[in-house]
Design goal:
Order of helices and strands: HEEHHHHHHH
Largest sheet: 2 strands, antiparallel
Radius of gyration: 53 Å
Number of strands: 2
Low-confidence stretches: 5-26, 34-41, 114-127
Helix content: 40-55%
Structural class: mainly alpha
Mean pLDDT: 72
Length: 230
């Protein structure tokens, strides 16, 4: 009587063999018994049949995500986004420059189209009064030629008292010089070549400066009081 190899050892491991192209699993001891006992081919086939069909081993799929490619794609996206941002900023700057150039061109064209007044239509420039006396007297005499009344004189006195004490040679480490404390003092050369020593030249320049920036001595003095300079 033949030994039943399937029930001989319940803890036998399984060995996968191929039979007629079909993968089956049988106990390893069965295979050993076949080879050692010299079982016939028919017995072997019978044993394989008794083992029955076994599920084939599931293929193992090894996934190797190419992280390098994915990271490179992210980097390329960030570079493209940065490039687009820079391109938009450059285009915005170019458009702003074009608008400024267009405004300047329009201003020049408008100025060129404005006819210059004929000499006969120009009002004669007021003749400056001959300065005489001390610096304050010279300044008071000049107020009318700038369109100001004598009521502005008190503000002018306070202003230049604070700035220079009405000293023609007053100088400051910053480079400011003279009665109006022009900064630098050489600016007053536009009023006369003797700007370093002539009170009338300095006052003439100072009154023109006040008129162009503050409108009047009282306007300049108000700014001096609030800011400490004019």
């Amino acid at each position: 009587m033949k030994r039943n190899l399937f029930t001989h050892n319940l803890k036998l491991s399984k060995t996968t063999v191929a039979k007629a192209g079909v993968a089956v699993a049988i106990p390893a001891a069965v295979v050993a018994g076949i080879t050692t006992s010299g079982a016939s081919a028919g017995d072997s086939a019978s044993l394989l049949a008794k083992a029955g069909p076994q599920p084939s081993a599931r293929p193992t799929t090894v996934v190797h995500p190419d992280r390098g490619i994915r990271l490179a794609g992210v980097a390329r996206g960030e570079v493209a986004s940065l490039g687009a941002t820079r391109f938009r900023a450059r285009r915005a700057a170019e458009r702003a420059a074009d608008r400024r150039a267009a405004r300047r061109a329009a201003s020049r064209a408008a100025a060129a189209a404005t006819p210059a007044p004929s000499p006969s239509s120009q009002a004669p420039a007021p003749s400056a009064p001959a300065p005489s006396g001390n610096p304050q007297q010279i300044a008071e005499a000049m107020l009318g030629s700038y369109g100001w009344s004598s009521s502005e004189f008190g503000c002018l006195v306070s202003l230049w008292n604070a700035e220079s004490g009405w000293d023609v040679y007053a100088s400051n480490p910053s480079g400011a010089y003279g009665i109006p404390q022009a900064l630098p003092g050489s600016k007053m050369a536009s009023a006369g070549p003797d700007w370093q020593s002539n009170a009338a030249t300095q006052i003439r320049w100072g009154l023109g400066y006040i008129k162009s920036l503050y409108g009047s001595p009282c306007g300049a003095w108000s700014h001096e009081e609030s800011s400490g300079w004019y």
